[in-house]
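Q: I'm writing up a methods section and want to include an example of the input and output format. Could you take the sequence below and give the corresponding predicted structure tokens, formatted cleanly so I can copy it straight into the document?
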Amino acid sequence: MFDEALPLVSADSTARPVYAVRPGELAALLASLPEGAQAQLRDIGFAAKKLELTLLSDADGINGAVFGLGDDASPLLFGDLPYRLPAALPWRLADAAEGASSFDMDAAVLGYCMGAYRFRTFKKVPREPASLCADGAAALTKTLASSIWMVRDLINTPANLLGPAELADAVLALAARHGAAPFRVEGAALAQDYPAVAAVGAGSQRLPVVAGFSWRGSAAHDDSPLIALCGKGVVFDTGGYDIKPADGMLKMKKDMGGAACVLGVARALMQADLPLRLLVRTGCVENSISGHAMRPSDVIRTRRGLSVEVGNTDAEGRLVLADLLAEASDAHPDLLIDCATLTGAARVALGPDLVTMFSNSDDWAQRLITSGGERHDPLWRLPLFDGYDAYLESAVADINNVSSKPFAGAVTAALFMRRFVARNTPWIHLDMYAWSDTTRPGRPEGGDAQGLRAIFFAIERYLAELREQKT
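A: Here is the clean output for your methods example:
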């Protein structure tokens, strides 16, 4: 999980340039190239269209490449290069005229690394990605790339190999790597302290675990901002007695994608050694079917003390997060974020590429929207509409885990979880797909670390603003 082999190498005098060019920069590039290369590009009608790639050559072989960016500003475009450039050669990114760059080098290197990822555990890839010389890239760029690769590896690992115990082991391995104080609860203690998590996992032979850690940066102190991160770690979701159809289970190994993304954010924050305190909790559990599984109409306890009627056993993720949010918010964090592959309704509303966001804090919601837009990691805010809160009423318990109406499923799920967040806690809930259905530049098919960059850079900017206020 921690041996990500990023396709980055040290400076190499033999590295060929990849000129990244936009249509308006093409004339300047042509003027800077040898006559033979100019003629080649003109003869083939190279127009710097988006993802257009041409290899340049002379009598000694390939000596460069030209890559069209079109009018697209996304650094993910560079993720199209690792498997299109010849792997036998090292490469370096260059702007149109080898002068002032028209793209952000760190963002481009990150996009390149994101595109180079492949899940290699069981199947040998046809070829290795081309190596990129990136000595000029910041250490943070490599940290983010490694964090994204870790998230993808976790999500892509099949459920027979990544059960609740194995996911918890991954959480604690990350804690050990960064000197964090580990936290693991299972068995009778879990049933007592996290009863809703225990109820979700009761149907599986693989027992549920709550795992996490606490950490503080080397420059942090007792009153440094406390950031709490909670992740839904349902390693496989059958739906329970409200069983999913067969095709609805095909991607359910990704139902722990929220926990994976939380771990990716935590890894990046810790590796960057930001001056903050960190509290991480993941609910590692399998939603299965057996004589011990929770049933529709069961009433279960929660850590907050609220009783919940189980209206649908396939709405289990919010039950897992209910206990985690109660614990984390009682620690009075400056920001509480939960990540979860929670509702199909969010995907119906916004599709797979937009992370659905709910928040009780306009300030933090705007911070994440701004960060996500700048980093091409988009989120879209939906309302915590109080008018739908009554949809969660139950005749036999304090609350039902699903709405009595067939509308606004993502909203009512967020409203359910809001009941468990302590008053005056700034809270953000991210309902994500955590998957890419097809391979696109920077986003290979499989697990996807959605929201990671948006969260990281929003927190980083918040900390920078606090430092400015103190100086």
